[in-house]
Amino acid sequence: MFDHLQIHDTRERLIVGVADAALAPLRWGRARSVAGPVGRVLLLRLERIGDLLMVLDAIRDARAAWPHAEIDLAVGSWNAPVAALIPEVSRVEIADVPWLAREGRGDTWPALVAKARRWRTRDYDVVVNFEPDIRSNFLAWLTGAPIRLGYSTGGGGAWLTDALEYEPASHVAVNARQIIARAAGHAAPDQAAPGRWPQLVPPPDAVARAEALIGDAPRPLVGVHASGGRESKQWHLDRFAAVARELALTRGATIVLTGSDSDRPLVNQVASQLRGARVIDVCGALDLPALAALLARLDVLITGDTGPMHLASAMGTPLVALFGPSNPARYGPLGPGAHVIRIDLWCSPCGRVRLPPERCRGHVPDCLDGIDVTRVVAAAIAQLDQTDQTDRRGSRRPTTT
Questions:
Q1: 27-41, 145-159, 204-218: which has the highest mean pLDDT?
Q2: Residues 303, 227 contacting (CB under 8 angstroms)
Q3: What backbone torsions phi and psi does residue 48 show, to the nearest 5 degrees?
Q4: What gap in Å lies between CA 311 and CA 295, rounded to an integer?
């Protein structure tokens, strides 16, 4: 029942489907045009850091479509530091929706409704919700904007003036760019067209903090982000260490260990196996703007499917990205020189990152366990060789200034 909804949980799909049926009368008499030029636009991207970073091209498309408009971006507070680095955005709004806030934190529904009503006073001409979710579509409706676009496949299409179907076989970025094209009345963009990197602009103080940590360390600078963020996406720590040791030995690499404060136990385990190598440990030492600036200076970053992977991609950093249960065709890095490693299994990619199958819990899942050190080292060396060739041509990838 309600199979048109792209909601995995059967009970949740039933609840949203019934709500959609009740909301059907709202589809009648909805405004679909703006009198005069578009002056104010609100983009809703309330999810995690990787989700925000995957819609940067769409945000750039919005700026190109409405070059003179104020373009506001609503994000969770966890993404506010990154949102402030997006040059196309005029203003950042904060909404910590409870279904995405971690550790039980987040705005209450009365607080969210109050925020959306304050957004109404901004007199937005266009509101675009990048998240296929009935709840955030409701927030879009509360803004009162005459044009409201989003996706029907998470429910709540009746709250919108134009509801698209989310294409699950396409990349998040492709879906996002298509919805902006629809809002602007343009043809869908050429997804093969080269992007612009870096896509974020860290402020000078963030750049200075990153450079102070790197100092004059010998190149190549090889970043290792050992934390997978979730157990289902965690590769073996000893294999991360083995890759780093090999690159330090064969390429004279300086190893840069990244991570948040909560990643400290994992980073310590990797660092303990790197005695004799040049190591710069920046775990917990950088906020997101400074981390973006640091990632831009690496010659390659080795990581799982993580927020820092997408941050590095946005900065144009060469990547070796290890994928297990998540599908790189939907969530893979989009930056230049990204190399994805995964193995083919009958069950992979299952997409069950938050709730993996019982057989994959409590240990590294088979789809990551099958990735060996030799393959990762070879991919990293290929990236370093490509960087060397680019340097010799005098066209090193762009970095922030």
A1: 204-218
A2: no
A3: -85, 180
A4: 8
Say if residues 391 and 227 touch (Cβ distance below 8 Å): no
- Cβ atoms of residues 140 and 10 within 8 Å: no
Q: Which two tokens stand for residue 340?
A: 């994805």
What are the pLDDT digits (tens) for 86-113?
Answer: 999 999 999 999 988 876 678 999 999 9
The CATH 3.40.50.2000 domain(s) of the chain lie at: 10-184, 204-392
Its CATH class, for the domain covering 10-184, is alpha beta
Alpha carbon distance 381, 339 (integer Å): 11
- CATH number for region 204-392: 3.40.50.2000
pLDDT tens per residue, range 230-247 = 999 999 999 999 999 999
Number of C-beta neighbours around residue 214 at 10 A: 17
Instruction: Report how far residue 131's alpha carbon sits from residue 137's, in angstroms, rounded to the nearest whole number.
Output: 8
Please work out, in degrees rounded to the nearest 5, the angle formed at the alpha carbon of residue 200 by the alpha carbons of 56 and 234. Answer: 75
The helix/strand/coil state of 119 is: helix
Q: Which residue has the tokens 């992979």?
A: 348
Rounded Cα–Cα distance for residues 35 and 23 (Å): 27
pTM of the model as a whole: 0.91
Closest CA to 48 of 230, 240, 261: 230
